[in-house]
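Example 3.2
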Amino acid sequence: MRTVEVALVAAFSGPDGSTGSMVRNSLELQARAIDDAGGLLGARVEIVAADGAGDPARAAELVRQQVGGAGVGLVVGPDTSAALQAARATLDRAGVPNCLTAVSDAALRGARTTFLAGAANAAEVAALLDGLRRAAPDARRIGLLDGRDDLGRS
């Protein structure tokens, strides 16, 4: 049986290390379910994880290494807007589908093969504001917390 690799480039070490582990665990559960049901168009799914360690340059190099292999059918990550910007030319050139879990809307603009798993930031903010209007129609001011990264500022 042939194998299709899903390359995950995320932080597995450093302050955000738990994020990569959670995504890897989720992907491995899904891969197992797909394999148990006969595979992806008859192919076995293998998750290959690489630690970007929260460093955009390192993540970009790992993406380059992953898409250089013939078996990679999907790249999940990198996991920050800065890392995506650093890896974007490689992803666009390779033409490999790229799934992201959390980046800013601005980082996605113009990306040819990249998609976000979940709602765009603008849609999430619109839904939040709509809920606030319904729950507190007399509210005149709200406070926002900035995570000091592209996602927090988007």
